[in-house]
Amino acid sequence: MWQAQFSITDLTHFTLRPLGAGAGKDGIMKRFDVELVVGVFVIAGIFALGYLSIKLGKMEVVGGKGYDVYALFSNSGGLKAGSAIVIAGVDVGRVKGIELENYQARVVLNLPENVKLQEDAIASIKTKGLIGEKYIEITPGGSAKLIKPGGRIRETQPAIDLEELISNFVFGKI
Fold this sequence. Notes:
Helices cover 22% and strands 33% of the residues. The protein contains 2 helices and 10 strands.
């Protein structure tokens, strides 16, 4: 077994000298092997954790495939980027972003190329369960004209404000 010896200040000076008799695998090589194996497992663990985070979070690493359309809502009601877009109970896309435009919520929807929306389609903000997450449900229309990429869904229904509904019921406004 050989041991490498060099000076940190002078990296050009490098010597090899034999380890003591009977040192075998107990020397530097054994420690190097253990450190290498541990390092490989740590790196593999980091990659696995990153992969699971992306898949479980349903995030897109390299831009979403498909095309974008947008809809204007008077109230986004807790909808967030990454929320599901559903047609007939099937997840077909994700909310790409939400921003304020002329005092309305402009919601950008990313849909796959094979999903075509008619001009009279209706986008509604719904809730899964009583206090569940928000999603957008699209009700297809009957028009022969389709919304082009970058186009707008004209018919929208904002989220139902449960607090306002209960307040109106309690105070007899319904």
